[in-house]
Design brief:
Number of strands: 21
Distance between the termini: 52 Å
Structural class: alpha/beta
Helix content: 25-40%
Bound molecules: pyridoxal-5'-phosphate
Number of helices: 12
CATH class of the largest domain: Alpha Beta
Shape: globular
Strand content: 15-25%
CATH superfamily of the largest domain: Alanine racemase
Largest sheet: 9 strands, mixed
Number of domains: 2
Radius of gyration: 23 Å
Length: about 450
Amino acid sequence: MLLGTQRVNEEGHLEIGGCDAVALAREFGTPLYVMDEALIRANCRAYKRAFAERYPNNEVSYAGKAFLCTAMCALLEEEGMCLDVASAGELHTALRAGFPPERLFLHGNNKSRLELEMAISAGVHRIIVDNEYELEMLIALAERAGRPVDVLFRITPGIDPHTHERIRTGQVDTKFGLEVQNGQAARVIERAVAHPFLRVRGTHFHVGSQLLDLEAHRQAIEIGVDLLAQFRDDIGYIAEEMNIGGGLGIRYLSHHEPPSISEYADMVIGTLKACLQAHNLPAPKLQQEPGRSIVGEAGTTLYTVGAVKEIPGVRTYVTVDGGLSDNPRPALYDARYEVLLANKANRPAERLVTVAGKHCETDTLFPDVTVPDPAPGDLLAVQSTGAYNYAMASNYNRFPHPAVVLVHDGQAEVIVERQTLDDLVSKDVLPRRFARPR
Ligand SMILES: Cc1ncc(COP(=O)(O)O)c(C=O)c1O
């Protein structure tokens, strides 16, 4: 499986964005996250085009939680995207990058006072209110600032998407949002609509992530529009906006066949228009928030192979110089990935091995994958690591975060520097009583 601008070059090496992966590893070290700029831009454009053609009254946000840094904000701004942020850190990154606040959406199921204050003072486009506790805090802060705020309400449509339980959010049993079925959403929104410091623009839902079929999205749109009709009929409130979150899946493995962006747009717009017509509702602005499907396939992680441990009749372990700290998804979600040896990319992948990391636990990264005969010093490339890898990295075992490079037309630029060993101790504080000359 080769993705985006990946190809195997004349030397038999993996090339991404016109850059030889072996040369990238030599120049920037490993583990290394490599992001394919052309593919990220192509995905942004595909979303914008697919929806503009079918339903011009729409806004496409990128879900920053998938992968965010200053350069990513700049790229998104150039592509005319909106951006959704879900923490003070993501919001700060966007604001420091000079991303226009009027294109920012703020999420979070337990937003802090600081996060709400930052959002109000920056004048973000929309705050997505998750619960009544947050609503009270937001009203108080908006009144104090003397600024009405534009809000959407996160609702729980009560749908169970077929995806891993930790990335499933649309079902009734979830920490996120106001429940539709027991009437909580309608009750809270009715009260909010009347408040002078709230401009209630509409509703938001996100049913889950890495969805490889469209059924959950279809059902959620139907329930979402039913709810808008209920608001109109019961309280005379006509929503101007409907945000359907993200969730479109990507290819982690060659047999994965996620719907294309245009198939997804066909279903979304077809369902939306039919439901609006059935209820005789005016068309709201459509908003959405893809994350993984913008950056996921654009990322490749490069590792250097260390020890190769063969247990005859059992398994061969190939260990690499990273692991759980740069990619926790196998441990969190049993996520599977496809790998190749970037320095032997033209050789047949005939050896069945298990790739393990170097942390102090059994951090099996990629079980039962096939590669050409592996040896210490080889360069292992892992496909589709652009989403929720760098973003979820930790310093477990005090491993520094890897660098991120953006590759494009044969050029590679660092967009996040590798943490240094001194970075790891830079926030440590030694109580005075421990002090002695060191
Ligand atoms: C509210 C919200 N919007 C958008 C997304 C992005 O989802 P995905 O990366 O699957 O497109 C998420 C993911 O968790 C989310 O929680």
